[in-house]
Amino acid sequence: MNNSEMRARFREIRDKVESEQRLTLDDGIFLYDPAVPLAEIGALANLVRERKNGNVGYYNINTHLNPTNVCVYRCKFCAFRSDLRNPKGYVFSDDQIIARGQEATDAGCTEMHIVGGLHHQKPYEWYRHLIELLHENFPKIHLKGWTAVEINWFEFQTKKSVKWVLEDLKAAGLGSMPGGGAEIFHPEVRDQLCEHKANTHAWLDIHKTAHEIGLRTNCTMLYGHVEKAYHRIDHLIRLRDLQDETGGFQVFIPLAFHPENTKLDHIKKPSGLMDLRTLAISRLMLDNVQHIKAYWIMLGIETAQIALAYGADDLDGTVRHELIYHDAGATTPEHLTVDKIKDLITEAGRVPVERDTVYRRVIRDENDYTNWSSGESVDPVLVAKV
Ligand code: SF4
């Protein structure tokens, strides 16, 4: 394609976005051509971002809990997992879990993000107990826990249906599900990375079932390893199709691959330009997902901040105790203060708004930071006001 053909093709896409028409697989693949200027894709993504979320930059105050790193699987991109007998392997006790809940409460956290390994010797009841323990002791904290990979494992352990498992966890206190484990759906890639764990059909079916029983979920894509543009766009379209059916995804989070300490450590980590291009294209392709998150832990603070002008409207949270990406060489800090995350958003020209896990505005007592409540949904009421 010569330069004027390239310009004409981009104009077609711009016209579609401006008139709110859906982009196709071919459109998405075209936008990954490095000859298409990133700044122009970014400007287009920003148009959609501001149409959907105004000038707001969302963040939350949250903490992570990875109760065990012992895992039956050996995903090639994973630096977190451990074998049972490896000295690196650990399992949290109830006391340690309670201590984490207390620390989160004292820090004013509204959310605990809970994911981990699939421990050979821990029955489903242990994973359920952990949710119940936290919920009973810290009922205000929203528990966003267990990816579809874990739910698939629980299904295998209990020999019950996905619906039964999800309803049982919901009864124990589960509030919503994170979007991990999606990696890349296309079998050409998935079979190379993690052929044994929950397959694409299972991942999508578990999220669909979660939406059907009233659990909101997030969705992700791990990019920058062995996949090509075609696989990324195919992945986004599969998510978009499910969202058309259920409307249950609240945010999409593109996850940049970190190679250190993984079986793919010969691969170079994606560049900042690739990160921004992927964020922007995600915003353009996922016309039915309200939020796009620039997960600062993976992207780095600087890229995440710029991403607020490339389609992203959310920086994730202050985060405590993140292990999974730090084990894979992430050099970001393990925690951001509330002031720091608000400054990052303000400096990017956006209005910082604290949200809870299900995107309601958080209202805090000015004199007691740990005293908070959830207000109205930020979608789309708040956007009109900023
Ligand atoms: S990504 Fe998750 S399922 Fe795969 S090896 Fe790591 S901990 Fe286990």
Question: Can you characterise this structure?
Answer:
With 386 residues, the protein is α/β, with parallel strands linked by helices. It has a single domain, classed as Alpha-Beta Barrel (TIM Barrel), CATH 3.20.20.70. It has 14 helices and eleven strands. The longest helix is centred in the middle third of the chain and has 18 residues. Iron/sulfur cluster (SF4) binds next to loops. Its EC number is 2.5.1.120. It catalyses: 3-[(1-carboxyvinyl)-oxy]benzoate + S-adenosyl-L-methionine + H2O = 6-amino-6-deoxyfutalosine + hydrogencarbonate + L-methionine + H(+).
Short précis:
With about 375 residues, the chain is α/β, with parallel strands linked by helices.
Distance between the termini: 42 Å
> What's the structural domain tally?
1
By CATH, the architecture is named: Alpha-Beta Barrel
The count of helical stretches stands at 14
Low-confidence stretches: none
Label the structural class: alpha/beta
- Record field, number of beta strands: 11
Proportion of beta-strand residues: 15-25%
- Report mean pLDDT, rounded to a whole number: 93
According to CATH, what is the topology?
TIM Barrel
Strand order of the largest sheet: 8-1-9
Pathway: Quinol/quinone metabolism; menaquinone biosynthesis
EC number: 2.5.1.120
Catalytic activity: 3-[(1-carboxyvinyl)-oxy]benzoate + S-adenosyl-L-methionine + H2O = 6-amino-6-deoxyfutalosine + hydrogencarbonate + L-methionine + H(+)
Cofactor: [4Fe-4S] cluster
